[in-house]
Structures are given as structure tokens and as C-alpha cells.
Write a structure and sequence with these properties.
Radius of gyration: 23 Å
Strand order of the largest sheet: 14-15-16-13-12-18-19
Number of helices: 15
CATH architecture of the largest domain: 3-Layer(aba) Sandwich
Number of strands: 22
Number of domains: 2
Shape: globular
Oligomer: single chain
Length: 485
Amino acid sequence: MNKQIKTSYSSLFIGGEWIKSTENNFSEVKNPHDQSTIGSVPLASTEDMDLAVKVAKESFDSKIWRSKSLNERLSTLKKFQELHNEYALSLAEMITLENGSSINFNRLLQEQFIPATNKGIFEEAEKFDWEISRENADGSNVLVVREPVGIVAAIIPWNAPQQSALGKIIPALLAGNSVILKPTPETAIDAMALGDIFNEAGLPKGVLSILPADREVSAYLVSIPEVDKIAFTGSTRAGISIAQTAGAQMKRFTLELGGKSAGIILDDATDEQIINTIIARSLANNGQSCIGLTRLLVPKNRYEEITDTIANAMNQIKIGDPMDAGNYLESVFHEPQYNRVKDYIQIGIDEGAVVKAGGLEKPEGEAFEKGWYIKPTLFTHVTNQMRIAREEIFGSVLVAIPYDTVEEAIAIANDSEYGLGGGIITSDRRKGLEIAKQIRTGGISLNTLYPDFGSPFGGFKKSGVGREMGKYALESFTELKTIVY
């Protein structure tokens, strides 16, 4: 079954009700491929945020949701997932139109990844230590209880919006919290659709709000004292600002931020392993992935051979309309991101790196004239001190850094302010595992394998604070209370 979602919304979703914004301010959602208008969403004002927080606090204080048993909460959220599956294709198509990512990529997320991830969280919730009791040495009893943190503001990016949203909403609701979701306006249609689905699933009124907003209003939401927890995915710069605001008020926060992940290619790696990993782990979602392997560390004794192999593979990638399942790379998200990626390509050229594939020019042809298209680009003769090797570009731009020894490769991989993802490309799994243990990063995998999103997901250093997914997400949306009696 393929249920269809709406393409435009005239009201905000506040506590389960569709309510007009206090300001008549709307955002048109554009297709990055051809700049056609897909639909529109209202933008929230600070007054709308105040109302959403007020409603969330009333719902939390009334215990309308958190007083329900775990089985009751699970029942509602499992019903939501059943309904979400029925909208999966429609949601995938909408996200493709919103952010320009491949329909294949979005169908994978909507039809496989999200259901599997939520199923895993449901299973973890059923065996989670919501209460632990023991006897104290003095004969008293100790009860350690996990309680919901309170009102959660979930702020998400545009590159994988449903996955980011539900990765926060589902565990937060399972823990008994009330949630305010703040999506990026340019990809808010699919987020607003969640309101209809949660209503259909029977989520009590007041527990969830969905309000697209600009940066100023988003910052205002973070600052509202009654908000107890910020769950944010986005840029490191924005994450630092959130941490400063939250720290001043002693709010809880989890931050899943940027990355400049290293992919260490060992000298025993085959061409097939290299190509498959680079295509899947470095260029998926148009390179707009926080865990993408964008720093390729290549052994000097095979440097020219391996970079030739990668360049040839990148030059053969099909680029075009993201709704065409035959294409692998598509337009980047919007004009500011397009200009950012182009600026970094120019920076790489100015720094003395060599463009071995791609470059500044758009792909040739009328089909690419209106969209924000950039050729997948590979820089060679890169040092780890260049800006293109140190700063997150968030596009299909890869840098190849040579190394002499495995120890040097490990040192280069760790010489970064980021520490989110990483990869080892090798034919020797045991050797790969030994190296992986030495990389200072939140997640790392061998060859084409992706991180296991039932395991803790998050970063070291400036890649974030805290962890998402599985039982670790449940932990992050709860407070611990010790009762001695």
C-alpha cells in the first residue's frame, strides 16, 4: 500500500492540533533538480514556540502520556510504525523532491532502515532497565528509577530528515517525554506529515508538536527555560551555540554534529573493495552525509594506481534527476550549499591540490542547467593541513592523502578536530580491526559495511556530545533517580 502525504500545509502542528501561525509567514519548498515549487509550509514565530512549549508542559504535567504503561506507549508507537510503512514510498518521493537526494537512497531509508531501527528500539525498550532494585549493606532497599527528562526540543537537518526526526521522537516518546520537533523549512513537508500519522496512530493530544522555523526562532526555542532537553543534529558551529545556551541553563543536550571521516585504504585492498566502499561510504546522498569517508588515506606505494582507480570510477557515475532510479548522484541541496561546495573546490585548487576527477564545472547538458549539480570531485597531492582536508565540505568532494606506514595513517586519521565516522578498506579483517581500535572516532567499519545503528551513534571531539540509537537513545531521554527506603 502506498498512502499519499499532502504537499502543502497551512497550519502548524501544535500538540496534535492544526493551528494557524501568529504570523502569515510561509516557506515555499523548491525542488533542487529544476527549481520547481513542490509545496509550502508555515514558519513558526516565537509566539508559536511559546504556545508549543506551554502545551508540551501541560501534557507532561498532566501525565497523559508518561503515566501510561510501557506496553501502552509501545502499542501506540508500533501502530505509528505500521502506518508509517504505508506512507513509506510517498515520504521517500517527497524527500527526494525536497532535498535532491536519490529516490533509491530515500526508499532504502524509509522502507528498510527506519522500520528496522524502530523495531530495534522497541525491543530494547522491552528489556530496558527502567527500574533496578537492590538491598543496601545496612538493610535498607535501593530503587534506581529512570524517569522522562521532560520537554524535548528535537532539531533536525535536511539531509536525512525522517531518519533524524524519528531517531529522536521515537525514543523520547517511549521514555514518556513530550516532544517539539523543529524541522528545516526546506524539508518540512515530510516532517509535517508525521503529525497526521501520529494522530492516526492515537498519540494523545499535547504530546507532540511540529514547527518549521528559521534560525532565529529555532535559537529562541533552545533558550526557553521550560525546555528540558535539546536533541540536535546539524553543524558543529550550531551545536556549539546550542551547548552554550543549554549550559547556561543546565539543560540536558545531545549533539550529533559534523565529520571529516578518514577512510584508510590498506595496501592489500582490492580494486573492487576500494570502489564499492568509496561509492557507498563516500558519495552516498550526494556526499551530504556526516559519516561520509571524505579523507582517503592512500599508501604511497600504490598512490597513483589507487587514485586512478577511484577517479575512473567517479567519472563513470551516473548523474541526473534524483527521481530517476538509474542515477546515483544528483543535485546538492540548494544554492547556498552549491556555492559552498564550489568554493571549497576552488580553495583546493588554490592550495595546490590536483583535481583528478570532477572540478568546478557543472555536468554538461540541458538537464543540469537549472539544478545545483556538481561533478563528483577527487583531489590528489593533498596534505592533511590543507583546508579541504580539515574542514567539512558536505558534498561529493574527496581528498586523497598519501601515507608511508600504517602508524602514519592512524596518526593522520586522528589529526582532526572531528571524530564521527571512519572506515578501513582491507582484505585482512583482523588487521583492519586492530587499526579500527586505534582511531579516535565514534564509529568505524570495514569496507562497505555501514555503522550498526542499533549500537551507540555519535562522535568524539567536535563531532558531538552523547549517543543516539538503541538503548543508548533511551538512556539519553531519561533522568536517573535513586530512592532509598
